[in-house]
Amino acid sequence: MQGRVEARPLHQERRPTQRRGRASARPTRVRTRDPFTAKLGVRRRRLTFSRATYTPPVPRRLLIAYGFLLFLAVLLRTAWLSDHAYLALRTADNAAWGLGFRWNPAERAQVFDQPLWMLGLYLARMLTGEVYYGTLVLSMACALAAAWLLVRQAATPLGIVLAALLLTLSPTFVSYSTSGLGTPLVHLLVAAFAIGACNRGETGSHTRWGFIATMAALAALTDALTLLITLPVIGRHSPLASREGGQPPSQTWRQSPPDARGLSLVSLTLSLAIPVTALLLWAALAIYYYGSLVPMATLARLNQLTPADRLHAGAAFLADAVRRDPILVATLIVGLALPFVQRTAERALAAGALLYTVAIVATGGSTWSGYGLTIPFVVAVLVIARQPALAMRRIAAPALAAVAILAVIAPVHTIASHAQYGLYAPPQVGIIDPRLQDYQATGLMRVRRNQWFPDHPESIRGLQAGEAQQAIAASPRPGFFGYAAGRSVHVLDPTGLGDPLLARLPPSSPVPPGHSIMELRPRTPPDGYIESLLADRNAITNPALAAFYERVRFVTRGQLQARGRATNAALLALDRRAPASSAGGRN
Question: How far apart are CA 11 and CA 434, in angstroms?
Answer without folding.
Answer: 75
